[in-house]
Amino acid sequence: MINVEDVPGLKRDLQMVNMHMEHLCRSNNRYIQEMLNWVLRQRGKQIRPILTLLCARLKGRAADATEIAAVVELCHTASLIHDDVIDEADTRRGQLSVQKKFGKEMAIYAGDYIIFSAIQKNELRNRSRYGRVFGKLEAMFDGEINQFVYRYNTEITEEIYLENIRGKTSALFCIACEAGACAGKCDENEMLAVEQFAEKFGLMFQLRDDLLDFVSTEELSKKTIHNDFWCGYYTLPVIHAFSDADNGARLKEIAGNIKNGLQDEDTDKRITELIRGSNGFQYTLTEIDRYASEAKRSLAVFPGSAARKKLLNLVDSLQASAHGTV
């Protein structure tokens, strides 16, 4: 969990975010409300609303970004509900997923309702700067769709993969951070710096998640080991290994066998060995380190503050977490 005690007012504002979420997730339909209550029981780490609140403080003055942070978190939550339907995931945030508890159809309705409610009920939709920020939701959906299009495609390139995750993951981090920067009255140059920070942070976040797919420790990852690979979603460690002259062809053969339902009890072990032998894990860590440096450098335009220090600490923590996976 992220410590919110070391930034004055952050804990209080996060409590307000949760109150806004509860207000936005009210329905007269008892079936919908039952699902919404289930979703709100587990809040997750709430890293996106925390980023929104911190970016609103980057200029060193108080700014209320609690409602926009709630909207960002609800959009993220809805996307997770839909992801769980696609992936047929049984759990989410330590409890049964919505699709497992209520069924796939109802889960889709719940995700749709959260998005529509968050957009329709909030008081910010007519403010032009926020409209510009939320225009990036399209990039998020583009990334999700393109990821699915390249499913089981062993010829996917690193460039295509990075472009996909800029949409799939970084776009919502950009929305979260820029929404906060809007509330904090950042100028155009400062908004650009925040956008650059958010993009690099999002790339780090996804590449760390890529590494977690190869970790079997339950404390580090709730996902089944190699879940992405078995589902045909090839991440950066794998893509780097695919291009290896010695091991790439063998890893592609395993990928093809899995797609065709042909595997044995040693498949997982061979996948890890081939990626490690191709330096796929270390290459991913090197890229995470590069993005970490770029993310921290982008915040140099802001004066020293508790919020800026906290953002830098979040980058360091994410980077250290990535190095602890392999």
What is the number of helical segments per DSSP (H or I, 4+ residues)? 16
Query: What best-fitting shape do the alpha-carbon axes yield?
Result: globular
| Number of DSSP E strands | 2
Round the mean pLDDT to the nearest integer and report it.
Answer: 89
The parts where pLDDT drops under 50 for at least 5 residues are 217-223
Residues in helices, as a percent range: 55-70%
**Termini Cα gap:** 21 Å
Specify the biggest β-sheet.
2 strands, antiparallel
Radius of gyration: 20 Å
Range of strand content = under 5%
Order of helices and strands: HHHHEEHHHHHHHHHHHH
Sheet/helix structural class? mainly alpha
Side by side, the strands of the main sheet go 1-2
Summarize the structure.
β1 (91-92) and β2 form a beta hairpin. The chain has helices at residues 10-24, 30-41, 47-55, 66-87, 98-102, 104-121, 128-134, 137-149, 158-183, 188-212, 227-230, 236-242, 248-259, 267-277, 280-298, 306-323, and strands at 91-92, 95-96.
